[in-house]
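During the reporting period the student researcher (J.K.) took over the structure-prediction task from the postdoctoral fellow and processed the backlog of single-chain submissions. One of the processed entries is reproduced below for the supervisory committee.
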Amino acid sequence: MIHREQVLRFLQEKQETEGGYTGTDLTRLAEILQVTSRGLNKRISFWIKTDKDFSKFIYLGKEKPPITLFEFFKIEHGLESNPIQVKKGLYDDIQEERIERNKEPLAKTTFYRGVNQKILSMFGSDQDNWFKAKKITFPENYSLEKNRESLNTIFTFSDLKIYGGADIEGIYKRLVKAKEAFSIYNVDANRYYPEILLKRKFLKNLLSSIPPNQQLEAQAKLIFQIQASYIIECNDLLIVELIHKHGRSIQSDNASRQKVENKMRKDSLDAFRNEFKELDDSAKIDAKVIKKHSNVLIEEEILARMKLLRDHIDAYRTILKLFNDLTNNMTTGVKFHRNEARTVYELATGELTWDKLNEQRKKSITWNPDLMKAIDYGNADVVPLIAISRLIEYIRNGKITFDESYYFQDVGERLRNVQLNPNDCFLTPEILDQLIAYTYPINGSLQFDIPTSELEPQDDELPTKWIDLSDILREVSTYIRSSNPSWFKEHDELFKKQTDGLFWIEYTEEEFAKRFYDSIGFLGRNFRYRDSEEFFGLKYFIQRYISAATLKLEFKFIHQCLEQLSNKKIECVVLDTMGIDARIKSILSNYHGRYHTMGFADLRAVSIDMTPIFSGVCRSTDSEAMNIVEVIDEVREICGDGVKIYTGNGH
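J.K. obtained the following structure tokens:
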């Protein structure tokens, strides 16, 4: 007798484990139920038509296919995301899953035949498939050699400095050339920038590790991503330099404002004295003359401000012209988030004149009643200059945003698309009350059990035996790998993710670990490849395998080992920034006002016992709070969810 529940359980098991059932499975089930295969098939066909529990089961054919349905979906998903990835990675993943399920291994010929058939069915050919998957029109006359060379001639920040700072005109011309070269793809660069953002620097190293005559499709993909990231970064650089140019004008005004005001007051006082020198009899003094000099229409402070604005008229017009050229007169890729921002732009360009504004709108533009009156007394020529200055402020404050930008994008739109889980918001009102009352529990006790020596060695005392630190490095590597059995597997998975499966690790675990820690020692000592022959062999490894993500993963392993050895949990992190001088000064180098360095600002985070946790580059004008989200994200990735307090250094 055929029992519905028994058949249902059997088919559910096959559906969950193998993605469906076969004719062979039904024959075996018929033998178990001691019924004929024909009778069982008829009953199942009836249930599929009438019973919704049976309608979801998939019939795979008479015999079980060599590739299961789940494996087929895995292959399809992998090819959709990146059809030019190394197929060996997909094959190894399927083999590993089969081993875990105690199933027979999949033959390589079967796998590669299925992959090739799927590629042909999805894309119609085996050429330019990554571009097809990303819906990018691949140029017919595409030259790999020419586009790779363009990374050194067009998509580069070199030769953009002049005496006194950045060559703003040169940056704009370079950006125009880059956009023209990138237009062959007929797509917007900002559409692909989010997936490039975290690995944009690694992409250049990855491309450098590929010989020009190998992996042509991988080269084309990497070149496209590097070009797209350059468009966004060069656009940001131009906006930053225009803001900086305006800031230098303001800085110059502030430095000379007092001098200009004093000169105007002196001229006014001299005019007053000269007029009264002509009066030799006090009876001839006219009260109207005194009143004329006492009640001036425009104060010297306002006159000085207008004069300084006129002195920078060329700089302001250059700023407006470049913004107009960049955005097609603020009509392409620009969002005005406030009505007054649009009004300010129209005043800057002359589309709107001062006399067309009402009193309220005039106040919102000038922010100063005395300046507003001075403009009404025949000084309307400074209105466009004031408007350009306001325009820069609106861009800095996010009231005007740009689509092809990262730092000046519409952040509000991105935040609206973020799905938050209530469990992610761990800063509750109760915790806030505890922080205010200084009662929030935190393990900040000092470590009194640290052994100390009464006799400290002299600083100038030479050691009896020099220690080879490379031996210690190898011991550290061995201990970390023994404490983390999945060390090599996690590095392998991260490498696949970083490279989108374009490459695979061609070393054994021992070989990879040795080269990896040798590279860390090389990078940590800030060497150059030419400094020693032993570094020559590391160049390829560093270009191909070393990135910020791999170093962060290794730091996570190191932190776990330190936690096991010391039995200490990090609960509080302190942040601070410092200026670092760059070895090579580029157009992207920043001046740090507090440290007086030319290079970059290093944002660092340590625990309360000074254990290093985070180090990252930020803009020299950034505060710790402006980058706190990135710090929290990385610290939680390394230390887990135990860290609850993030604080600045207190000054």
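The committee noted the following: The two ends are 83 Å apart (CA to CA).
J.K. will present the remaining backlog at the next meeting.
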